[in-house]
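TL;DR need C-alpha cells for one chain.
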Amino acid sequence: MNNLVKIIALVALIIYTSSCTNKVEDDSFSFAFLTDIHLTPDNNAVDGLRQALEKVDSIKADFIITGGDQIMDALGQSYERADSLYNLYIEETSGLDIDIYNTMGNHEIYGWYPESHADSLNPEYGKGMFRKRISDTYYTFEYKGWKFYILDSVKKAGKRKYRGYIDSTQLAWIKKDLENVSSETPIIISSHIPFISSWTQIREGSTMPNHEGLIVVNSKEVLEAFAGHNLKLVLQGHLHILEDIYIRDIHFITAGAVSAAWWKGPYDQTEEGFLKINCSGNDFSWEYIDYGWNVE
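>> reply
TL;DR here they are.
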C-alpha cells in the first residue's frame, strides 16, 4: 500500500510540475516590429516586403506591429497614387495568418503637402485615409498580460511640415485608459516618430538639438502620464537606424527599417530588417533580424 501511495504522489507531482511548466510557457510570446516599409511598386519593394513577411512566418511570431510609413507615400501625391499604394499594402498583408497592428506614420497621411492638390473636404484627406483603410490612428490592445499602446505621433505644422507630437485629446485618452491599468501590468508603446533618440547628436555633434520633425516634442509630458505604471518599452521608427537607449528602466528602441535606405541598400550602417521581441513574465529581450534582402 505504501508503494502505491508513493506512486500516486509521484504521478500527481509530475502532473502538477508539467502544468506549471506549461503555464510559464503559455505566458511567453514573441512579436515582430516592422517599421518604415515604404511599400511602392518600384525598387522591388513588393518582393522585399514578401521576403520580410516570410521571415516573420519562419520565426513563429505571435503577431506583428508595424511602426508607421507602411507606404511611400501619400503626403504629396494625387488621390489616385495614394489610393493605389494603400490598396497595394492591404493586398500584401490582408491574407496573412497573423494579426497585424498598424501604427500610422507621416507617409500614410494623404494630401498634407500642397503638390498633391488634395481636396481638404475629402473625408479621406489627412488621416482620414488611414482611418478608413487601416484602423484608428491610436488604440490599445492586450496580449497575455501585456498592454500595448499604439500612438499617433504626427501633427501638421505648416503647408509642407509636420512635427512629432501627441495631441491633447490623445493624451487625455491615455490618462483615462491608464486609470484602469494595474501598476504591475507591463506596457509597450509604439510611436512612429521617436520619443527619445541620440541620432542627431551622433550625426551632427553632441550639443545639437533634435529637429521637431524627428522627435516627439512633448514626449516628456507623455512619459509622465505613465509614471507609476510598468512601462517597459517604447518602439520607434522614422529614422531608419537601429538604436537602443535604456534609461529609468525603459528601453527606447528605434528599430531600423524594413526598407533600409528606401529599398536602395543599407542606411547609416543599418541593414534592411525588423525587430523580434520576446516577452516572458515581466521581462523582454530583443534582436534585430536582417531578413536577407539585397538590392538588385
